[in-house]
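Researcher: I'm preparing a figure for a lab meeting and need a structural model of a single chain. I don't have an experimental structure, so a prediction will have to do for now. The sequence is pasted below. Please return the structure as tokens so I can convert it later.
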Amino acid sequence: MKQLFFVIAIILTVPVLAWSQQKDSLVVTDTSGKVVASTKVKKGLWRDSAGNRVYSPRKAAIYSAVFPGLGQIYNRKYWKVPIVYAAIGIPIYTFFDNRTWYNRTRYALAVAEADPNSATYPDSLANVHSSLSTLVRQKQTNSLLNYRNDFRKNMDYSILFTLLFWGLNVVDATVDAHLKGFNVNENLSMQVKPAVLSNRAIGLSLVFKFDDKPSK
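Model: Understood. Here is the structure written out token by token.
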């Protein structure tokens, strides 16, 4: 399981490193492809020729990788921040909760396997959690062992889900920054029309139409 976590961490790190190697650039070209402007108005903030803010996917990815939710704040998608915190915070909480119960069951198992006639047994039994003391007195070591293994397994799953949601948080911030650059206006339309296929079957077709004329 440790090897799996290491591989996942490497997979999540590579996209961030790739973005960090890219240079921020805002290049404005004319219809022939000739560069007519390349300007950075101030550090960390780009604006296009119309004065609109241009978001950097590289920065969004790094911000979310360093601190979850920071990339969403950079993209001004504030409503996503509680979702990110919940997605990452819940498995972190379950990890610590399962670790606590793992330690309790491990201790209870050790007491159950100890000699009840020893002088230290009463004190050891008193330190066992109340929900496990019955199993210890009845010497149900198999049940305690199963509980301990389950808590250990849940700890591993919690780490796995934490890494997974952390990576999704980076991907979400990066994609959002990319989508900020798309200009979707009222000139773009979609129509659903009936269509006759080659085998004379009747179906539906989606027609996308883009009118480059400014809308009145």
